[in-house]
TrEMBL record:
Keywords: Aminotransferase, Cytoplasm, Glutamine amidotransferase, Repeat, Transferase. The active site is at residue 369. Residues 44-189, 223-364 form the SIS domain. The keyword Cytoplasm applies. Homodimer. This is Glutamine--fructose-6-phosphate aminotransferase [isomerizing]. The keyword Transferase applies. It is found in: Cytoplasm. GO terms for cellular component: cytosol. Catalyzes the first step in hexosamine metabolism, converting fructose-6P into glucosamine-6P using glutamine as a nitrogen source. It catalyses: D-fructose 6-phosphate + L-glutamine = D-glucosamine 6-phosphate + L-glutamate. It comes from the Bacteria. The chain holds residues 243 to 616 of 616 of the full protein. One of its GO terms (biological process) is fructose 6-phosphate metabolic process.
Length: 374
């Protein structure tokens, strides 16, 4: 059994550590020799891309969080209004025309690791019935969602066995990022030089991750015993950091059974701050970005209430180090790529706490890898 786990004690750890390899596979052949995005799998013409007015991402669980990251990439790179909706809501919402009758202006993207999630499949069918020609971002080749979609972008994460999704998430984020860059080029909202710069930085992410993972893993292991008295956790972030906060909180809930909430840091004052005290773990996703100063001021408020702060920040950030009880350091990267680097520390933190608490890491209670019934 350890052999199939690549010598690791759990599939989850193996899959977290595999992310550099998985991301290299995701990118393979999708960046041209000219350094620009190449997504020929997606038969989408420049005319169609220019006519788009919005993008609707539909997904469940971790895949929904990847969709939320993508809404920000689509706005920034392709100047597209985008929403990410939970599939179980999307499928039952009042039907709005999406296709030619609706002006042909919406691109619907189903995001799923397994390609078999019942709600996501049903939501995709509802979008198709409304006139959309949905595309899918899927890991499992030949799965139901992949077969029914009009176009598929495979994430190429490889088999994911652990119920808690890890490499599927980062490869979804990378695939959706490529989609946003591709649409940005087709729509003329992303310059050639801007695209080259971002894609070159994207190409460096697997190496950056590979370099940081051993230290992050060791740090998470050392930190876990200090967190055993925590009653619950609040995950905070702004911008690209907010969906990461949701994903970090989900990972913790899934495999430690501790209560955890993900919140936009700016929303903390509207409720969650009432929970902050010495027994609250506060995890903040705070890499160097446009909103950094604002996130730090939220942290000051957490510190004033004796919350235990674990931060994820960019190397060299002294201010963050001063405010946090522990910091996972990320190498510098363009803001839109921070999610690809910040996911692993969140995953390893949840993993080590789950191990320290003696939980069943790979097969947490009440959860299934793929939910094929409603
Ligand atoms: C289940 C899994 C999650 C996953 C979600 C969506 O709840 O436990 O890890 O994110 O389904 O699955 P999908 O295969 O559609 O991405």
């Amino acid at each position: 059994a350890t052999a199939e786990k690549g010598g690791e004690p759990h599939f989850m750890r193996k899959e977290i550590l595999e992310q550099p390899r998985a991301l290299r596979d995701t990118l393979c052949g999708r960046v041209g020799l000219d350094g620009l995005p190449r997504l020929e799998e997606l038969a989408l013409g420049a005319g169609e891309a220019r006519a788009l007015e919005h993008v609707e991402l539909i997904a469940c669980g971790t895949s929904w969080h990847a969709g939320l990251v993508a809404t920000r990439h689509l706005a920034e790179l392709a100047r597209l209004r985008a929403s990410a909706e939970v599939a179980s809501e999307y499928r039952y919402r009042p039907a709005l025309p999406l296709g030619a009758e609706g002006g042909g202006k919406a691109l619907v993207v189903a995001v799923s690791q397994s390609g078999e999630t019942a709600d996501t499949l049903a939501a995709m069918r509802a979008a198709a019935a409304g006139g959309a020609r949905p595309v899918a971002v899927v890991n499992v080749v030949g799965s139901s969602i992949a077969r029914e979609a009009e176009g598929v972008l495979y994430t190429r994460a490889g088999p994911e066995i652990s119920v808690a999704s890890t490499k599927a998430f980062s490869t979804q984020v990378a695939t959706l990022f490529l989609l946003a860059a591709h649409l940005g080029r087709l729509r003329g909202t992303l310059s050639e030089s801007g695209a080259r710069e971002l894609l070159a930085a994207l190409g460096r992410v697997p190496d950056q991750l590979e370099a940081m993972l051993p230290e992050v893993a060791a740090q998470a292991r050392a930190l876990a015993p200090r967190l055993l008295d925590k009653r619950g956790a609040l995950y905070l972030g702004r911008g690209y950091g907010f969906p990461l906060a949701l994903e970090g909180a989900l990972k913790l809930k899934e495999i430690t059974y501790l209560h955890a909430d993900g919140y936009p840091a700016g929303e903390m004052k509207h409720g969650p701050i009432a929970l902050v005290g010495p027994q609250t773990l506060v995890v903040v996703v705070a890499p160097q970005d446009r909103l950094h100063a604002k996130t730090l001021s939220n942290l000051e408020e957490v510190k004033a209430r004796d919350g235990f702060v674990v931060a994820i920040g960019t190397e060299g950030d002294r201010e963050l180090a001063r405010l946090a009880d522990a910091v996972f350091w990320l190498p510098p990267a363009p803001e839109p790529l921070n999610p690809l680097l910040a996911a692993a520390p969140l995953q390893l933190l949840a993993y080590e706490l789950s191990v320290a608490l003696g939980r069943d890491v790979d097969q947490p209670r009440n959860l299934a890898k793929s939910v094929t019934v409603e």
